[in-house]
Amino acid sequence: MVWESVLEKFKELFGSEGEIGVYFAPGRVNMIGEHTDYNGGHVFPCALTIGTYGVARKRDDKKLRFYSMNFEQLGVLESSVEDLKPEKEADWTNYPKGVMWAFGEKGMKVEQGMDLVLFGNIPNGSGLSSSASVEVLTGFILRDMFGFDVTNQDLALIGQYSENKFNGVNCGIMDQFAIAMGKAGHAIFLDTATLQYEYAPIKLENAKIVISCSNKKRGLGDSKYNERRSECERALAQMKEVIDIASLGDLTEEQFEQHKDAIKDEVCRKRAKHAVYENQRTIKAVEALKNNDVELFGKLMNESHVSLRDDYEVTGIELDTLVEEAWKIDGVIGSRMTGAGFGGCTVSIVKDASVDTFIKEVGAAYEKKIGYAADFYVVEIGDGPVKLA
Ligand code: GLA
User: Fold this and answer.
1) Domains recognised in the chain with CATH numbers
2) Most exposed: 22, 42, 237, 327, by fewest CB within 10 Å?
3) Ligand 1 atom having least distance to the Cα of 37
4) pLDDT tens digit string along 295-307?
5) pTM of the model
6) Which residue(s) pair with 46 in the sheet?
């Protein structure tokens, strides 16, 4: 068991006395509905069985002692619950600290410190939400440790709040929601305008979900993520002059085509087009899945990638190569970039019989073109956060 080695590390660093809890929060992959969550649209992510393990113990004083087995070179990092200032990304501890700060902002001040050891088996910076996983995990630990009266959905909102306000990344709600609300074997069809959601079973007969990691690192903070958000905001403001909407997610494709000239800037018009069409595609994709039409779901995934490449312009040569090589393989039902883009991962639905060929051929073509290797993961859809011991 992975968690046993994390517990062992905890005891080695911080001793074995007292009440020690062992926790897990998943990572996530988004099947379709990209860059729609801050546009009032729909998303369709699922939690994974890989994620972040945390071992924690409450302290009697105000001290925080944090250690990550993924950043061992940093050693034990110490701070205090009295010293939780929002600051720009410094090291990984900004994520748990941000969540503690966010609890305080929401009227649940964390008065005591803790010792915490983390280990994540999600590749860092891969676009599978390693940071949202740490955020939700921290909230889950705080609730268990201090008895705060919050639901899993609240944990998602607090995680997003901390990432927005403490870490300066203007992310939407998708990642934290998918992680906090995850359900094995199901993806979550979430309307980000209302937070209404439903679980949709992912029944892939004779096929697997394969994640291809480009190994091009991406930091949301220094990416063009925030820029895309403001381009969409500008487009929305101009659209609102001609049609009564609250968000781009309110528009059908027809309404968009009818009113698009209200958006003066061509770049903003393309961004808005993606947001509108991607939202409608997501609704259609979930419908297709309900009708057991996996082929149509895959086709919509492919269209999503093209839109992210040409209109939203968040792919780049690494993700495009992974997807375009995937499309060449027989037995690939659909393939697209997933997450924020600019690096990170793609998600593909691949027939069982083709998985080995997929990994071999996409891997070889990628390395030849890009100059370094990609990594491949055949993943399972898992549950939300749990206390393991
Ligand atoms: C990142 C953000 C999410 C979402 C995706 C793009 O993962 O954290 O809120 O906007 O990018 O769909």
Assistant:
1) 2-202+383-387 (3.30.230.10)
2) 237
3) 10
4) 999 999 999 999 9
5) 0.97
6) 29
